[in-house]
Amino acid sequence: MTPTGTQLKLRLDQRVRWFKNEWLFKWHHIKGQRTVEIDMFDGRMATYSGIGFEGSPHLVFWDAIVRGVRKDVVEQLAWLEERVRVYERESAEAAIDESANLLIAFIQTVRHATIQKDAILRGDGINFPPEHDFGTWTDLSPADIAHQTAAIKQALFPAGASTSTASLSDSKAGVDAPKSTYQVALSFAGEQRSYVSAVAHALQARGISVFYDEFEALTLWGKDGIEFFHQLFAADASYVVMFISNEYVNKKWTRHERRAALSRAIAEEHEYVLPVRFDDTRGAERDELRVRFAIQPDRSPSFGAYSDDASA
């Protein structure tokens, strides 16, 4: 086992024990008179006392455990990417592959423990119903983990830049573009907000449907960030423009957005991720595509994929 794999296994074993011995265990006490607080993994705590494990509590149980495991996977992937960033390619890829298997095993272990606990909680202490998986484990299948870890490899060690061109006007016309909620989604660090805001307004003025968080305040209200942004950058846009900077590659949320977008790009094998560089940050140099992006006074923005050459 690689050093990174050994460390990740210790981290995941600790999380498994926490889920089993703390989170799942607390559900035994919701029928009592003493108030029990249970983490919902979305910034809220559920408070229960004197109720049965059925109806709404049962739905909450399954919704929360899936969200909690997904959140753990996101955090472990962020740790993994940072850990292998300094490795040579062969060592990094070996550690990433090993980590993918560990994450799959982690998900399966917590999932099995949850199924067992659910049957116990639905029973009466003597008789227990058959075990059944009530969870919707979106983005947590072995194939999903494979795509996300492959996205880390692609971000760190791109196979080569594409020289084909792609334009958002083609997307607008419906040419070779998937049906999506947005033609383009913008992924950026808060430090570049003023520039990205100008880009978003310019795209909107051109009639391009764009996801920019300030345009979607009502849409985002009350949403679980991990699930919403994974869905957005992995499925709901025809293109993702990444405004890459030192701040971008060092923030947890932007890493999550980048992995989600690259996992789709790898699965579909077409120009989907369009990076824009603010500086010479290492992460910016290692993305698969480059985009020549310019906004000039009284003109609309233009996009075009190009190869990673000295003129970039």
In words, what does this structure look like?
This protein is α/β, with parallel strands linked by helices. It folds into 2 domains: 3-156, no CATH class; 168-306, Toll/interleukin-1 receptor homology (TIR) domain (Rossmann fold, 3-Layer(aba) Sandwich). The protein is 52% helix and 11% strand. The chain has 11 helices and 8 strands.
Helices, by number, come to 11
* Main sheet summary: 4 strands, parallel
For the secondary structure, the number of strands is: 8
Measured distance between first and last alpha carbons: 39 Å
Shape: globular
Order of helices and strands: HEEHHHHEHEHHEHHEHEE
Stretches with pLDDT under 50, minimum 5 residues:
160-178, 283-312
Average pLDDT for all residues:
79
Structure, briefly:
52% of the residues lie in helices and 11% in strands. It contains eleven helices and eight strands. The strands form three sheets. It has a four-stranded parallel β-sheet with strand order 4-3-5-6, with helices on both faces. It has a two-stranded antiparallel sheet with strand order 1-2. A two-stranded antiparallel sheet has the order 7-8.
